[in-house]
Amino acid sequence: MSGRYFLGKASRFRFFLVVGAFLLLSGSTIAAEYRFDDLCRAAYREVLCLRFTEAQRLITEEKRKDPGNPVPAYLENYIDFLTLVIGEEPGKYQELKENRTARIRILEAGPGNSPYHDFLLGEVYLQWAIARLKFRDYTTAAWEIRKAYSLFTGNATRFPSFRANKVGLGVVRVVIGLVPAEYRWIVSLSGMEGSLRQGISDIRDVAAYSGSDPLTRMYRPQALFYLAFLTVNFEKDKQEALNIPLLGVGSETGEQPFESPLLIYARAVVLMRNGLNDKALEVLEQRKSLPVSFPFCYLDYLEGTARINRLDPGASLCFEKYVSKFRGITYIRSAYHKMAWAALLRGDSAGYTRIMKKVSVMGTAMVDEDRQAGAEAAAGHFPNLFLLRSRLLFDGGYYSKALAELLDRPLKEFLHSKRDRLEYTYRLGRIYHETGNMVRAVACYRQTLAAGADEPAYFAAASAYQLGLLFENSGNASGADSAYRACLALKPSEYRTSLHQKARTALKRLEKNED
Fold it and tell me: What is the pLDDT of residue 155?
């Protein structure tokens, strides 16, 4: 007989039974379980601060320490998401989307009875929807949004006290609420329901949280980021955004400031939209003292915009830095456009012409600012210098200086076309509006609307929208309704998308207030 030991049938059965039980029991010790432990929370913070190298180090450590935890897959997807939406590199999109399926499979393998299961999956689907929209993959993005909606709403039903779920759910509801009326039937067919008001309420619930739950506290900065942009862009009073604690801290809790380029960006935008340009520049300066992170080149563009708003010749350096370092697809034309403006402000007409030639061949026309830059390049005419100076000073909140540019010289000296005259009355209306002279503001807006309804310039449509805001804030709902509808009836070649979206949102807001 050979030296091998042969088991009988009964022995073999008992052997495999014991081995199977061992594997089952030992497997349960490393079975997938969602754990947002200290390492994961620290990694999440590093992700939001765009310190991806340090975040990945923490994620790798978590994988080694707890190989059954699916949360690192979510965190790695978050890094991919921010890399794509901030960097905007098409090549990276093709490369990183290969990671998506594997990450989803890891998260799906976790226990379905955990509130983290559908929450983290919903976050991943939402992140990819936003990334796909950035790269014009609209059909797949719509599917991802629907999937995220299903996961978030289901999670809200099963785990109503799981507050962090409200951030993603709120974003999805906002997206659904912003779908144009002509496409609402598609949303209805898919069974999705949502509104801007409902979505903002969900997000605000997390942003305002002051309790002790560590996960909800961790998601506050993300909620604050979303809330800032929704408030400043879609609420009737943009000043409400100034009350949002954008640094994600509450002095009453003793929290340390959350130093993230994302929140610096949000705070700067809120300040600039409210005419607090110098304060915005102070905030943007803070980024230069932060630890090295993933390049957020748009902050250079934003600083350039804030500088040109106060007619600072140093603005050109910021725009040059943006176009030389950014490898993405948006605001390239706009950056060259503003560089050309800076040249014109310096009296360099040849420089303006030379730079504007780049506008037509660089970047894309995906956002309104780039489309406007392209339209001015195609028109081939010089901007009216006095109107340009007034526009920039107004955007910076320097209202008395902006008004002086319009009133301190005879009109015949600087108004040479119908477009000039339309812009003149519109600029006056905006200045009077922001400085509280509502009677004059209404008169200027109405004059612009009557004279420019058939013109391709955006001044008439913008006047109608501003009239709507003015009436809404003064309690004149019927006047506001008429003004917003007048805005939607106009088809300017400039800024149409953003103006119409804001007007539609305002009409929904009016309807909600009537209920």
Answer: 97
